Amino acid sequence: MNWIFGTSIFGLLCLLALSAYIDRIYFEMGKFLSREYAENIDAWENNVEPKLLLGRESAAMSASVLRQIALGALAFLLAMRLHGSAGGHSLVEISRAVFELVLVLLFFDRLLPQLFFTRTRGEWVAPITPIVQALFYLVLPVTLMIGLLLSIAGLAEPEVEVEEHASEAMDALLEAGEEEGVLDEEDRELVRSVVEFGDKVVREVMTPRPEMFAVPGTMSLEEFTAQVNEHGFSRVPVYAGSIDEITGIAFARDLLGVKDSEAEERKVAELQRPAEFVPESKKVNELLREMQGQKQHMGIVIDEYGGVAGLVTIEDLLEAIVGNIEDEHDAPAEDEPVEESDGAFLVSGSFEVSRLRELFGESLQARASSEDGATEDEPAAEDFLPQLLTGYEATTVGGLVSEIAGHIPLPGEVVEDGPLRLEVIASTDRLVERVRVCLAGSQTASEPE
Questions:
Q1: Domain 338-372+379-446 part of CATH 3.30.465.10
Q2: pLDDT digits (tens, 9 = 90+) for 199-236
């Protein structure tokens, strides 16, 4: 009888290892995986699963049922073996037997399947597909019964629709990729930028009209050469009368073919090339493809009324993905935030609203964690910022302040929204130039001006 017992134990251990391996495959499906994990899943999906003639959900449940049956049968046989031995057993002997049982189960249920999963490509399962199919069909009645019970239990529960924004789903996927070692932090931010790139419109990445450098078509080439040398631009919009009448684009390299003796007499309009006009509501990914296809590097952005809203370049589109790109002609960025000693930031009016999250994210998180009195109806401080970023049409801090105030605010005016306090430092009758941003209720906010 010993050989029967030993054969049964060996068969159950093999069944446990196989079912645990298959159960792990179904568990890992749909997750971010390293290459060796993906090869096992690909081998199963291509070589084994189609031959089982079972749905994926039924096959996964069958593997789980087989695993539980093997565990239960092993525990039962070993317990009966111990109970049927002659003579009594001390507590030490029982404890040792239980410990040995746990070690054996851990090896065949955890360690061995993990070794198969990480050290093989899963091709070894294909030859034993008929055995796997027979085992799955053997427990199919149990699997169907469990599925029926789960369906009945699901009908008893009311459906709760949870609205999940695409950005939240993407954040969850990126966090999963980082946790599993597939993405590091830099890769995660790059992927996020690429995904967000498809949702942006030209208005968000363009150089706005007040910051455009353009020249009249009546300007002499001699003066234009001096302007190009001063500003360092390779392409310059050309207008007739006013900047709303863009007539073309002048290329700095075209000046190389102009003789010095002709530069004083000839005008910029003679060198201009046709300009491409782009609506400000156009998706940036569509514009990038068009500019690549047409070999265009600059487009004039127009608003819904046909007026010039700004200009956009290939560099602007790429910066939306990889961040700021500087060359030897770029002046030091004036819109970079300046942190003050009290935690406030001085930013230019053209500073992007979306970047406020980077400046105050940690401070808001710290404040939220210290707010013990927050109720369910009163969101924590860190929850206000996303509402601030998505509640307005303005994309710059200057535009945001003007939109909240309802007018172009004067220096000294203060507006608040959520946890942020924005004080205008400098402005003109047309735009806000400088703003101090801090957390409402902070020392800076409470100090009188």
A1: yes
A2: 788 888 888 888 889 999 999 999 999 998 888 888 99
> How far apart are alpha carbons 36 and 167 in whole angstroms?
29
Judge whether 313 and 298 are in contact, CB under 8 Å: yes
Written as one letter, the residue type at 365 is Q
In tens, the pLDDT along 166-194 reads: 555 556 666 666 665 556 666 666 666 66
Q: For residue 77, with 0-12 CB atoms within 10 Å meaning exposed, 13-18 middle and 19 or more buried, which class applies?
A: middle
Residues in the chain: 449
Element housing 73 (H / E): helix 56-84
Quote the CATH superfamily of domain 202-322.
Answer: CBS-domain (3.10.580.10)
For 345, residues 6+ apart whose C-beta sits below 8 A from its C-beta are: 337, 338, 339, 359, 436, 437, 438
Query: Can you give the residue ranges of every domain in the chain?
Result: 2-154, 167-197, 202-322, 338-372+379-446
Task: Dump the DSSP string for 175-213.
Answer: HHHHHTTSS-HHHHHHHHHHHHHTT-BHHHHSEEGGG--
Contacting residues for 253 by C-beta, under 8 A, at least 6 apart: 234
